Design the sequence.
């Protein structure tokens, strides 16, 4: 503090309002950048899924896969069909924890947060309806 302002209250001065305004704008910019960074981190984040065959479905050699967390169940179904060399017209059902079939537009991260255990999401696949 300078000697001129030694005994004065400067909390309501125009200079202090400008500095407060500038610091708030800086904080808002930092928050905006941190939101973008967190979106990038989420899109790079991967979820381990364990694919188990059920019923008459062929068994996959590699059962554990790491997939981006923003993928959908529909993309997993398409991947498993390609991996098993099934026809496009063949049905493939995916079940979470032997309970229910999630909709094809369901995001993997949502399922992992609700039903994941031991660091992975267990999905069962079959060619005919099995559960739920």
Sequence:
């Amino acid at each position: 503090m300078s000697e001129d302002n030694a005994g004065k209250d400067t909390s309501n001065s125009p200079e202090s309002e400008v500095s407060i305004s500038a610091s708030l704008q800086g904080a808002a910019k930092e928050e905006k950048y941190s939101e973008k960074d967190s979106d990038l981190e989420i899109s790079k984040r991967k979820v381990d899924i364990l694919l188990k065959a059920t019923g008459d479905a062929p068994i996959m050699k590699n059962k554990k896969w790491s997939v981006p967390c923003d993928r959908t169940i529909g993309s997993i179904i398409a991947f498993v069909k390609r991996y098993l060399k099934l026809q496009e017209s063949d049905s493939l059902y995916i079940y979470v924890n032997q309970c229910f079939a999630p909709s094809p537009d369901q995001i993997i991260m949502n399922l992992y947060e609700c039903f994941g255990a031991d660091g992975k999401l267990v999905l069962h696949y079959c060619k005919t309806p099995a559960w739920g």
